[in-house]
Amino acid sequence: MRRGRWAAPALELLFLCLAQANFAPYFFDNGVGSTNGNMALFSLPEDTPVGSHVYTLNGTDPEGDPVSYHISFDPSARSVFSVDPNFGNITLIEELDREREDEIEAIISISDGLNLDTPAGSSILKVHAVDKDTGSGGSVTYFLQNTHATKFAVDRHSGVLRLQAGATLDYEKARAHFVTVVAKDGGGRLRGADVVFSATTTVTVNVEDVQDVAPVFVGTPYYGYVYEDTLPGSEVLTVVAIDGDRGRPNRLVYSLVNGSDGAFEINETSGVIFVTQSPAQLRREVYELHVQVTEVSLAGSPAAQAMVSVTVRIVDLNNHPPTFYGENGPQNRFELSMYEHPPQGEILRGLKITVNDSDQGANAKFNLRLVGPGGIFRVVPQTVLNEAQVTIIVENSAAIDFEKSKVLTFKLLAIEVNTPEKFSSTADVVIQLLDTNDNVPKFTSHYYIARIPENAPGGSNVVAVTAVDPDTGPWGEVKYAIYGSGADLFLIHPSTGIIYTQPWASLDAEATARYNFYVKAEDMEGRSSLAEVFVTLLDVNDHYPQFGKNFQEKTMVLGTPVKIEATDQDAEEPNNLVDYSITHVEPVNVFDIDAHTGEIWLKNSIRSLDALHNITPNGDCTWSLEVQAKDRGSPSFSTTALLKIDITDTETLSRSPMAAFLMQTKDNPMKAVGVLAGIMAVIVAITVLISTATFWRNKSNKVLPVRRVLRKRPSPAPRSVRIEWLKFRRTKTAAKFALKEDAPNENCNNNSLGSSLPPEAPAPPPPPSIAPSTGAAHWTVPTVSGSLTPQQPRRSPKPQAAGSPSQSALVSELRQKFEKKNIDKKTYF
């Protein structure tokens, strides 16, 4: 049983004031039973006299400011205590009666004039649960349902709810807290079982706001504008601030700290800023004003403060577009004459252009650019503020070409940069170009091809060449000339470019069918270009077909054609193509001819010589033909010739190979001469090789240390081959041939010298001289092995000498030398 009544003070929550680093004051917590501090768990006997000093509130301010103390009660309850605000002494002013009221709720606070605070550990209220049981079953303990998510704690025996150590309350974060308290009895047995009863209640802790947050400006940043037509006293803008303590806001006062230079003022209550001077008197384009707001406490003293910057711009009205000026005032067309292809980077000094914008500040800023063919000129400056001299510079000299465009036209554009209106203006720039000799004459083609007949007379036109020089006046006049190895037969007109043949020229397609040379086009200053000319002579049919030299006589073997051939010296087809025909035959036409190849055949009905013997009057199988060779030109030319053909058969030819050979080469004697010359060359080469080999062999035998006996082998008798030549007879169809062997020659033959001569062979003798022939029908070709001797056909053979005198002398001399060598060998052995 308590001896006194509890006075449980309630808690008022405060915001910490961070503005200007002003922290809230706080109470000292001196624990249970103390008589000064925060009145936590304070108890008082009910018989305490009224007017007694029962407790002293004690606290401090972090900044060291003076503090004051306050106490309040619920409006429906009695005010039991009073406090001295300066010293914190609490006095009992009402009688206490425990039976009527066993606890008293009071709210105490401490303030430094700006902030109030409820300290950690302060008692907020006391909960009380009644259990009508006695003993342990009637004892009650208290605890919180969720101790981790709350800033509060409860005394388990007394039920006093207090703020946890280190915890603070913030009105701006949470205006109310809900705490669930559980009351549980000590437990006991009920109907034979252990039972524990509990009950819960929810305590709502309302947080009251205190002055702990500085004022705040809203709608920042602030910008204001003063226009050139703004009147003095006109409103520029309004700044707005609110007290950060929304529960109990203080009155706010506005003021200008600096930056106005006397040109602006502010209403301290409404925050309206207005201009006090005319725009023409303002010396700056931008003003940075510093506005301060201050809280005024209930006591009328200044409290928390805040500061904000306000930017005021003096705005010029954009009512002037950029304007171009010439030497005599505003101008929108500028003209200039200049030569084409000026140097890169050259300034067009003939243009005097100025641009100006009468506005001020940003309204007078504009860009310059040229509108027209791009990349030819550039303008400087490209950005202008108020006024500038305009300069135009050559950027692409090659594009400034008189031949492409005699006049260049551009527009000079000035346009504002940062204004809503984007005022602009233009001026025409016209440049008249003057021509220079900057072009080379160029032919219309890199080469020219011409064709003229070979019989064209001297002075005939061949081809006309054309070169163009785009320059004007005398610079565009072109002169022509030709040169080159093929230009000797041609001339060119220097002005017209017509190429013609020399007056004395005689063209011949068979001699030279094509000519090529160069033509040059040159202007008055020596600029020139070249083209190539190709002239082809067109062939004219001006040659007759011509038969070959060996044409008059042919020999035909049955089943084999003979061929005639004529050539036409014309250069091109069809003038040099020849067709053949038989125009007349004696005695009877038994022949067919291939018109294209010239091959002559016996008709298919003629199959043997017997058939031909019956046709010819004399039975000699000889025909005379008149053949014609005709070209395909226009007009056409032809040639006729007489041809004599002797006809034979293969049986007659097979009697003698040599005769067959001679018969086959009868139409081509050079072929026979070539074959005979080849045979002689082979024989001479073999003889030289054998002689050389023998010489080296005998020479090596002299140094051998072993004696040898050389026995002479009998040498075969040399053979002399004589070929009988058959004289061609016009009355016979073929010649007869015979091979005849001479009598054995006693002289040694060169073919057997390798085995019968002594080891050292003599030097090869000089070739024998051939004795001139004594008769037309008898001739001899001497060789190493024999001689060819023609024979008279169908005549009795006459005895022939064994050899010519030169041959006999040579063989005798060789024999004597060989015998002498053999005697020397025998003596040696």
TrEMBL record:
Report the main location listed first in the record.
membrane
Signal peptide, first to last residue: 1-21
Set out the biological process GO terms recorded for this chain's protein. Answer: cell migration; homophilic cell adhesion via plasma membrane adhesion molecules; photoreceptor cell maintenance
Sequence ranges assigned to domain Cadherin in this UniProt record: 42-112, 117-217, 218-324, 330-443, 444-547, 559-659
List compositional bias (Pro residues) regions by residue number. 759-770
UniProt keyword list: Calcium, Cell adhesion, Membrane, Receptor, Repeat, Signal, Transmembrane, Transmembrane helix
Q: Which InterPro entries match?
A: Cadherin, Cadherin-like_dom, Cadherin-like_sf, Cadherin_CS
Q: Which Pfam families match?
A: Cadherin
Q: Which residue ranges does UniProt annotate as crossing the membrane?
A: 672-696
The biased composition feature labelled Basic and acidic residues covers: 814-829
GO MF, any single term: calcium ion binding
Polar residues biased stretches: 782-794
Where in the cell does this protein reside?
Answer: Membrane
Q: Report membrane topology.
A: Single-pass membrane protein
Alphabetical GO CC annotations of the entry are: catenin complex
Q: Looking at the record, which segments are called Disordered?
A: 742-829
User: What is the role of this chain?
Assistant: Potential calcium-dependent cell-adhesion protein. May be required for the structural integrity of the outer segment (OS) of photoreceptor cells.
Summarize the subunit comment.
Interacts with PROM1.
Q: What is this protein called?
A: Cadherin-related family member 1
